[in-house]
Amino acid sequence: MHLLFRWIISATALFLVAFIVPGVTVENPWNALMAALVIGLVNLFIRPILVILTLPVTVLTLGLFTLVINAILFWFVSTIVDGFVVEGVMAAFLGAFAYWLIAWAGNVVAGTDK
User: Fold this and answer.
1) What is the DSSP string of the chain?
2) Which of 9, 25, 28, 51 could form a disulfide with 106 if both were Cys (CB 3.0 to 4.6 A apart)?
3) What is the pLDDT along the chain (114 residues), one digit of tens a residue?
4) CA gap 102, 9 in Å, rounded
5) Cα-Cα-Cα-Cα dihedral of 89, 94, 96, 101, to 10°?
6) Among 69, 82, 70, 72, which residue's Cα sits nearest to residue 33?
């Protein structure tokens, strides 16, 4: 049940990002659910590998390169999921940051952040 709430919060956050960030579009709630699922899976399996491979750059930039990784993965998910579109580098960067911020706040409010 806990995982289901987090998934719904993430999909809602993604849907809100589409309204806030120009260049990020989500066609319907079903696409938001699928994109949130794929983002979760990408963050679970692919992100740790990229973080380890880019560790020297991340250390040199004092961790700021992690934001670039998040933007790249956000854009990558848009190439996989139909109905979720990210147009451009700035939209990917702002969309990934807004998605993280809204999902984090939603999980804190719902009490599922533990």
Assistant:
1) -HHHHHHHHHHHHHHHHHHHSTTEEE-SHHHHHHHHHHHHHHHHHTHHHHHHHTHHHHHHTTTTHHHHHHHHHHHHHHHHSTTEEE-SHHHHHHHHHHHHHHHHHHHHHHT---
2) 9
3) 889 999 999 999 999 999 999 999 999 999 999 999 999 999 999 999 999 999 999 999 999 999 999 999 999 999 999 999 999 999 999 999 999 999 999 999 998 876
4) 9
5) 170
6) 82
